Amino acid sequence: MTAPTSEAASRIQRASTAMGSEVADGFIVMDIENGNYFSFNGTAAEIWRAIEAPVTEAQIVDRLCARFEIDPETCRAKVAAFVERLADARIATTTDA
What is the pTM of this model? Predict the structure, then answer.
């Protein structure tokens, strides 16, 4: 698995080993390879929804800026950091477009 980068050509998506369920306030996700659980709410849940299919970080930022009141630069930095954490946890992967 490659770690996500900020390159526009890279597409981020959920790892095939990440299984989850939407709950009232977000998502509960489990990595079926190692049994680790994750709970996402708010913006994190929206990012998780976005990466069901391969998307770029720029597409995620556009989606979040349209939904929440956040400036694009702040959003871009926070998305990049969260996507990196998802990759470190091995529940998201990247592919070249």
Answer: 0.85
Q: Rounded distance, CA 57 to CA 17, Å? A: 21
Residues 38/29, Cβ–Cβ less than 8 Å:
yes
Look at strands 26-31 and 37-41 and give their pairing.
antiparallel
Contact by Cβ (8 Å): 35, 47: no
Residue that wins the pLDDT comparison between 87 and 5: 87
Read off the pLDDT of residues 73-82 as tens digits, 9 standing for 90 and up.
999 999 999 9
Q: Does domain 10-96 have CATH number 3.90.930.60?
A: yes
Q: Which two tokens stand for residue 29?
A: 């996700």
